[in-house]
Design goal:
The complex is a heterodimer. Chain A is of the alpha/beta class. Chain A is built from ten helices and 19 strands. Chain B is α+β, with helices and mostly antiparallel strands. The chains are: A alpha/beta, B alpha+beta.
């Protein structure tokens, strides 16, 4: 399955300030004019220390630069001339924003340089380690690589299930059926997938959220029809089910020993391929597949148990 | 209807994976395919995995393949081939 769109994620400083957790109590000290123009594109931060000491080659443009206790202590023991030089030595175009932690008072030279070059300076009362943790967590979420794929996502028995398959194979009808059985719709037709660390999180695009398209009925609103408990928000993708036409499935696993995999963002999601044909009640099959998977991940594999039993019988009769 | 005797020759017998191969092959034919244990006359439908497993045929077991249907000739030939190749284990 090919992702049909890949975006280079970035966030402006203004957006970052807006989305930052309240407990950070971010204050903007300078650079208000460039808040919209400068962007963060990496969830990793940098500490400005080494650059201030003269080694500025490794400054990354899209990372937040932290000025904490050690940077401040270093600057304090310099004389005014040396301090000015430390800041002038930096390539300020390469700095998207500076975050001062622990409510430290920035030196006059820093403020002057920042004002002159319109570099945003933010301040928080949190100590560096806590601030870095919060910033990284937020940025990881916002800057996670994102793709959208064609499919349906549901929340079932606490798991996130992604159903894929060709158009017209009955994914949406299957979803509707599952919703009437008490499962939750996360997204129909278009699923936005974010890679956060080593997990995949699926969600619905804001516009089509809570809606389903059923041929013959058109677009319907699931929350209005079935209530708030029929809707799920973003969720980790645990399992994938691919619906395929019966005659296109070459090798159906008759034992159920081997699990297929769907590769999204280089993360392997366990997958069942379910052949669709008349007389096969897809909803029940999907529901059962999720139950089988739940048992499997809790260490109970029915197929393996039966086969072990069978092996013993065969061996006994030799 | 065609009938033919066959012996299980592979080391592991008609174990799960071999059974799965047989079932998959049998499923490609229209004919009805029966596998019968010679000594007990217990039989299995070659298109059903659980049925084939109940045969519990180990190495050396004598079986009869019984095929009936439009493509019985080719079906019997292919099934016998699978047995004689020891399910790809030889």
């Amino acid at each position: 399955m090919l992702p049909n769109q890949a975006e280079e994620p970035k966030i402006s400083i203004a957006e970052f300030v807006e989305k930052a957790p309240l407990e950070m109590q971010l204050e903007v000290l300078s650079g208000t004019n460039s808040l919209q123009k400068k962007y963060i594109n990496s969830p990793r931060i940098q500490k400005l220390g080494l650059a201030l000491a003269g080694f500025a080659h490794y400054i990354h443009k899209g990372r937040i630069q932290i000025v904490g206790q050690s940077e401040t202590a270093y600057l304090d023991q310099l004389n005014q001339k040396e301090r000015s030089y430390a800041f002038e030595n930096l390539d300020l175009n390469k700095i998207c924003c500076i975050l001062i932690t622990k409510d430290l008072k920035p030196s006059k030279e820093l403020i002057n340089t920042a004002l002159k070059n319109d570099v945003p300076i933010l301040k928080t009362h949190l100590v560096s380690s806590t601030a870095i943790g919060k910033v990284s967590k937020l940025l990881q979420k916002i800057l996670a690589p994102k793709i959208t794929i064609h499919g349906v996502m549901l929340g079932m028995y606490g798991l996130g299930l992604l159903i894929i398959g060709e158009s017209g194979i009955g994914k949406s009808e299957c979803a509707l059926d599952l919703i009437t059985k008490g499962h939750r719709l996360i997204s129909d037709d278009v699923v936005t997938i974010k890679k956060i660390g080593d997990i995949l999180e699926g969600s619905s695009p804001e516009l089509t959220k809570e809606h389903l398209e059923i041929r013959g009925l058109g677009i319907i609103n699931i929350r209005d029809l079935f209530g708030v408990s029929s809707i799920g928000q973003n969720k980790q993708i645990d399992l994938c089910i691919e619906l395929k036409k019966w005659d296109e499935v070459v090798d159906v696993d008759r034992l159920g020993l081997e699990m297929q995999e769907e590769n999204i963002f280089d993360i392997k999601i366990p997958k069942f391929i379910l052949p669709v044909s008349s007389g096969r009640y897809i909803t029940t099959l999907v529901e059962t597949a999720v139950r089988v998977f739940l048992l499997k991940i809790s260490g109970h594999d029915a197929a393996k148990k039966l086969i072990d039993k069978h092996n013993k019988v065969i061996r006994k009769s030799i | 209807m065609l009938r033919k005797d066959v012996k299980v020759i592979n080391q592991l017998g008609l174990h799960a994976r071999a059974a799965a191969q047989l079932v998959r092959l049998a499923g490609t034919f229209e004919s009805k395919i029966k596998i019968i244990r010679k000594e007990s006359q217990i039989y299995a439908d070659a298109k059903s995995i659980l049925s084939v497993l109940t045969l519990a045929a180990s190495k050396g077991t004598d079986l009869i393949i019984e095929v009936e249907g439009a493509d019985e000739g080719i079906a019997l030939e292919k099934v016998l081939e699978l047995f004689s190749e020891g399910f790809g284990e030889l």
